[in-house]
Amino acid sequence: MSQKENITARPQSRFIEHFDIIPPAELLDMIDDQEEKEEEEEKERQRVYLSADEKLGKKPTPLYGLSTSRLADNHLFYSPTPSTTHSTPSLSASKVSNKSKPMNATTTTTTTTGPIKLDKKLRSLNKADVIIKRYESWYKFIILFISWLSEIERLCSQSKRTYQLLSDTTSSKSSSNKSVNDIQATLYSFTTDLALQEKKLAQAIQNEHLPSLEQFKKQCNYNIKSLKNQFGLGLGEFLRRAEVTASFMAQLAKTCKDARGTIENGAQVTNDPWLVNLFLLRRLKREVDEENRLRKLMVPIQKTILTFENQLLVSVQNAIKTCFNKPGVCTEQSIQILNHTANNSWDTFVSLNQKDLVDEANPLKQYLNINYPCKNDPLVMTVHKGQLERKIGVLSKYSERFFVLTQSGFLHQFKLNDKMAPEYSIYLPKCNLLQSKDAWFEIQRSGSVLQRDKSYVFRTSSSEEMATWCKLLSGYTLHTACVTGLAK
């Protein structure tokens, strides 16, 4: 049977029960401390360069670039596919060194259009910008309301003096006419009451409401400056990570398309979509981790402004009610309007800005729940995974490694203590499988003009485990044979 017929005729349904929607958690949860340290050092260098360039009036230097990685078995090589803005994951014919890191976003390399650049506007974006704008609108309102209330207080003080002068003109009495004296006394009492009412209103505004509103004004201004100057709310790092993730998503879609076409043509797949998806999910996790950090910061900020608004609205309501208590001004409808405004202000704001605000009941995102192109493509799913012993080194001693079998026909080998990138990647459609009843099996690759013969000997902990692996591997290899004899 030809290679094309072997690959295309391979029954897909027999492996469905083994599929994982995502790569193994053992690989996704690996965190490379050295890579994190290198990224922090690179970002610090970039900040120094950016500061120096801005002082000199120069354009900002590139914040980061993408590098290629070399991850493969001796008989494979993955060549980087040209991209419009990024370099892509690649596999090489040589073993991966410990210093080589897949797709390190902090290592600047040359691509077809150069590294990504973020302008100053993007670097200055603030996660709490929607909250800052709301504070600013409240600040303008407080200034306007203080001005209005101060004018009311001034008019009340002026009216008080006017009523006092009017009272003085009606205070004299005529002893010859009792009726006139009674009328004058009534007018005097009325104008005196009006003067006292204006005095009480002016004092209440000046001594109670205006000081309280001035405090809200100061607090609002302080909150605005604090949010604008809070370095942790900057979106620069999140945008950088999102840019990297977007490039991986585009690369994954292209890799899936190329791999599917290669399989249909009966040729050898060069880029494994599963491996690209593994790197993508790691970058997606880094992006979501940064977003979750910002989202956690937003929760107390939202609670603070909600408390601020509630207290401010109570103070404003009390001031307005005090003014409305003048005869003929206060109405039940006016009070209802004020209460409705106070109760629905925040809810309306949240409904209009759901994308920018955080659900306080569920503030964090789960990166595995995020849908992206080709997430559920069969080529990115895991067929089988587990630990096996393999003969490695000059002495050919068995060493334990973690292995993943992918739908494209690759068997990736990872170190147990370093699962950032595979040590080797065996392309099974170019190999033969020998299986034994003694819990070991062998994968053989025929040599060529440029390559020598190569064999990989594996040992399992039980015959059942070996049967499972061999059953799955046989669906990808050129030929499968059973052997007997002593364990290798």
Explain what this protein looks like in three dimensions.
Helix content is 50%, strand content 11%. With 488 residues, it is α+β, with helices and mostly antiparallel strands. It has a domain of 103 residues: Pleckstrin-homology domain (PH domain)/Phosphotyrosine-binding domain (PTB) (PH-domain like, Roll), CATH 2.30.29.30. It has an eight-stranded mixed beta sheet, with helices on one face. A hairpin with a 3-residue loop joins strand 5 and strand 6. The two termini are 29 Å apart. The N terminus is likely disordered.
Features:
488 residues; 8-stranded mixed β-sheet; alpha+beta; PH-domain like; 11% strand
Choose one word for the global shape.
Answer: rod-shaped
Secondary-structure element string: HHHHHHHHHEEEEEEEHE
Number of strands: 8
Q: What is the name of the CATH superfamily of the domain at 381-483?
A: Pleckstrin-homology domain (PH domain)/Phosphotyrosine-binding domain (PTB)
Q: What's the assembly state of these chains?
A: single chain
Q: Could you say what the CATH topology of the domain at 381-483 is called?
A: PH-domain like
Quickly give the structural class: alpha+beta
CATH class identity of the domain at 381-483? Mainly Beta
Q: Please outline the major beta sheet.
A: 8 strands, mixed
Helix tally?
A: 10
Nutshell version of this structure?
With 488 residues, the chain is of the alpha+beta class. It contains ten helices and eight strands. A hairpin with an 8-residue loop joins β6 and β7 (454-459).
